[in-house]
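User: structure tokens for Putative MFS family arabinose efflux permease, please.
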Amino acid sequence: MQKNDPYAALRIKEFNIFLLLRFALVFGWSMQFIVIEWQVYTLTKEPIYLGLIGLMEIIPAFTMALFAGHIVDQKEKRNLLALCIAAFSLISLGLFLLTWDKVVGDWSTQSILYGIYALVFFGGFLRSFFGPTIFSLIALIVPKKIYPNAATWSSSTWKAATVLGALFGGFLIDWIGVAMTLCTVFILVALSFIITFQIQKKPILNPNIGESVKESLKVGLKFVFSDKAILGALSLDMIAVLFGGAVALLSVFAQDILHVGSKGFGILNASISIGSILTMFITTYLPVSKNAGKKLLISIFGFGVCIIIFGMSKLFWLSVVALFFSGVTDGVSMVIRQTILQLKTPDHMRGRVASVNSMFVGSSNELGAFESGVAAKYLGGAARAVIFGGIMTLLTVVAIGTKNKTLRNLDLTKDIEEHESETN
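Assistant: Done. Predicted tokens:
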């Protein structure tokens, strides 16, 4: 196998099955996310209710994250993932029923909202298990020397599914309606459950099976907070996503600022992910391991600039371009962060480290959605909220880049060479 083979991970059959599984799952999940946002805003016409969607998901996702990481490190990964997908299919079915007129035709708006928020809350609970399980499973499918390549393809697949999910979600709202779109999501989740069993069960590499939850979490947290590169990357992405994300307010921009309807809403969502997927595909040919720290800082600074431009724009095409380049810069930062985590995390701690990652970055998406909704209400509109978030992102990059010398000077080429020598 060539040293810089951009298709190294794709030459492993089981990894391709894993990518197919992840694509089907994320494609459906992405559609579900934007359809629910569209439905909630259609019912209420208040940005604050969009923020509550994020809040309902982050509460269980954040509070359960560390415990979920402990469980993932103690259990077999394939079956655990199948269990999570089975539970997620019940959420998708419930959301379909809550938007189907034959079921909720005489329900009050408040009752429907309560039902949606309850299912989103349950989804947040499952979310705490999904990330650590998938992160750990990748490392059991591919050899260490191609972790960076596998992480790039996995992230690219996630983004590709997000692109098409967002695009089709917006279009399907217009073509077949909200309820039938969510029914489609349920079918996709069911298919992903079936695909899961094409992956073989994996060994449990944790030497401390039966370790107490308290001791397990203590060891995991100590590892993360003692590694300045990991801690710096997670902190940077957390605050950038928290303040710089405009996704939660895209339905407001589509309906009330740009006036482009559900199709435009889908295009706005998809433009972010298109930028990311193109960038991540390019990084399979042009690895970002050299001077990774500086590249991470530059990419997130560029992300903040793009978000500010989007917030100021009143033109649809300019908004699409700004979101596209926010996706480009986000794609670079995502590849670097995932590579850092894969290379620097011991096999027996992957669940716990991934859980901390979900607390820092994954949960900040939902908390960012809540922050965006609150900011839109109290800063005088969605545009001002997005601009404020972009400015906060820029300030965060400057602060962390100045104080964290380890992250600023991080170079991952030596880590990759060490893994290659171990394999050989």
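User: Anything notable?

Assistant: The CA atoms of residues 168 and 266 lie 7 Å apart.
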